[in-house]
Design goal:
Layout: H1 2-29, E1 40-48, E2 54-59, E3 64-69, E4 75-78, E5 84-89, E6 92-96, H2 100-104, E7 126-130, E8 134-137, H3 151-155, E9 161-172, E10 175-185, H4 191-206, H5 216-246, H6 251-262, H7 264-281, H8 287-303, H9 321-349
Antiparallel strand pairs: 1-10, 2-3, 3-8, 4-5, 4-9, 5-6, 6-7, 9-10
Helix pairs in contact: 1-8, 4-9, 5-7, 5-8, 5-9, 7-8, 8-9
C-alpha cells in the first residue's frame, strides 16, 4: 500500500515538473525572463521635462522599464543609435522592425542575433504588438552587463556604490524627452546564514515525525506539521503574487492573468500545500502521505526555485528583500520538514515481516 502511494506520488511530481518545464519556454519567449534576484538596483528618478500622463517605472527587479502613456499623444522610445524603437499612443503599442533594439531587447542579456532587416538608418517599419497604453522592455542603458562587480564594489564590498546615472531618450511628437534614473550596486546578504537557519528549521519540523502515530503526542505532531504546511503554502502564494506585482501586473485582472499564464504551477503548489496541511489538521486517514507529497512539491517548485534570493541584495518583489528571504525560508523549512516528517511516519507504519519461529530441536534418545 505504502509503495503504491509513493509510486503515485513520484508520477505526480514528475508530471508536474514536466508541465512546468513545458510552460516555461513560451513564458521566456514572451520576455518573462525576470531574474530571481540581483545585486544591482535600477531606479527611475523622473522624466525631463515632465510630461503629464506619462509614467515610467522599473519592474522585474529592475530588469525592465515600463512606460505608460495616458497623455493622448504619441510618444516614441529611441533605440541605441537614436532611431525610433517603440511607439506608444492612443492606437496602441508598436515596435520598429528596422530597429536593432527590437531584437537586442528581447532578452535581458541582449545577445539576440540581428536579422538583415535591422538597420537603424532605414525608415521605420511599425508592427503593432499591443492594444493598451503600456509597454515593457529590457534596456541595456539601465543594466549592468559585466560578470564581475564594479571596481569600487570589489574594493569596498560592505557599502553601496553608484554604478552610473543613466538616461533613455524619448520623443514626444517632435520634442525630445528623457527618462532619468540611477544604477547602484548593493552588498549581497550572507547566504550561509539563511541556509543555516533553513536547515535547522527543517530538521526541527522533520523531527515532528518521530513520535509514534498511534500516540497522543503523534496525533498532535502531525497536526502541528499540518499547521506549518498551511503557513508554508500561504508563504509560497504570497511570494508568487509579489513576483507578479513586481513584474508590472496592474489591477486584479492583470494580476490573475499573470498568475495563470506565468506562475500557475507554483501557485497550485502553494494551494496544494495548504490543502494537504488542512487535511492533516483534520487528522484524516493518509494524512502522513498528504503532508509528504504536499511538502515535497512545495519545496521543489516554490522553495528551491526561489532560493537565489538568499544570495542577492534585490529580490523580485515589491517589498524588502529581507521579507522575501523570510518567505522563501519558510517555504523551504515547511516543505522539506513536512516531507521528512511524513516519510518518517510512513516508514514507522510499514508492516514488519514476521520473524519465523526457530525450528524445534529434535529429541535425541540416549540408550540406557
Amino acid at each position: 500500500m505504502i509503495r503504491t502511494l509513493l509510486t503515485r506520488a513520484g508520477l505526480v511530481a514528475a508530471g508536474a515538473l514536466a508541465a512546468t518545464l513545458a510552460t516555461a519556454a513560451p513564458a521566456a519567449a514572451h520576455g518573462a525572463d525576470a531574474p530571481d534576484g540581483t545585486d544591482y538596483r535600477t531606479t527611475v528618478t523622473g522624466i525631463s521635462p515632465a510630461r503629464e500622463g506619462l509614467e515610467v517605472r522599473a519592474v522585474e527587479a529592475g530588469a525592465r522599464l515600463e512606460l505608460t502613456n495616458r497623455s493622448g499623444r504619441t510618444v516614441e522610445v529611441m533605440g541605441y543609435s537614436g532611431e525610433p524603437y517603440l511607439r506608444v499612443g492612443p492606437d496602441g503599442v508598436y515596435e520598429n522592425t528596422r530597429s536593432p533594439a527590437t531584437y537586442l531587447n528581447r532578452t535581458i542579456a541582449g545577445d539576440t542575433t540581428l536579422p538583415a532587416e535591422a538597420d537603424p538608418a532605414a525608415a521605420p517599419s511599425w508592427r503593432r504588438v499591443a492594444d493598451g497604453p503600456s509597454v515593457r522592455w529590457h534596456d541595456q542603458r539601465t543594466l549592468y552587463r559585466e560578470s564581475a562587480p564594479p571596481a569600487a564594489a570589489r574594493a569596498a564590498p560592505d557599502r553601496e556604490h553608484r554604478v552610473r546615472d543613466w538616461a533613455v531618450p524619448l520623443r514626444d511628437g517632435t520634442e525630445p524627452v528623457e527618462i532619468h534614473g540611477t544604477l547602484d550596486w548593493v552588498p549581497p546578504p550572507d547566504a550561509y546564514t539563511w541556509w543555516a537557519v533553513s536547515v535547522v528549521g527543517l530538521l526541527a519540523v522533520g523531527a515532528l515525525g518521530l513520535p509514534a502515530a498511534g500516540s497522543t503526542l503523534g496525533a498532535r505532531s502531525i497536526a502541528a506539521v499540518g499547521a506549518l504546511l498551511v503557513g508554508g503554502g500561504m508563504a509560497a502564494v504570497a511570494y508568487t503574487v509579489g513576483r507578479e506585482l513586481d513584474a508590472g501586473a496592474q489591477g486584479v485582472g492583470g494580476l490573475l492573468l499573470g498568475l495563470l499564464t506565468g506562475q500557475l504551477w507554483i501557485l497550485l503548489t502553494g494551494f496544494g500545500a495548504v490543502a494537504a496541511g488542512a487535511y492533516a489538521l483534520a487528522r484524516r486517514p493518509a494524512a502522513d502521505f498528504a503532508v509528504a507529497l504536499g511538502g515535497a512539491c512545495l519545496a521543489l517548485f516554490a522553495g528551491v526555485g526561489n532560493a537565489a534570493v538568499f544570495a542577492r541584495a534585490v529580490a523580485p518583489v515589491p517589498w524588502s528583500a529581507t521579507g522575501a528571504r523570510l518567505l522563501v525560508a519558510m517555504v523551504l523549512i515547511t516543505g522539506v520538514g513536512a516531507t521528512a516528517a511524513g516519510i518518517l511516519r510512513l516508514h514507522a507504519a510499514r508492516p514488519r515481516a514476521a520473524t519465523p519461529a526457530p525450528a524445534p530441536t529434535p529429541l535425541t534418545l540416549t540408550p540406557s
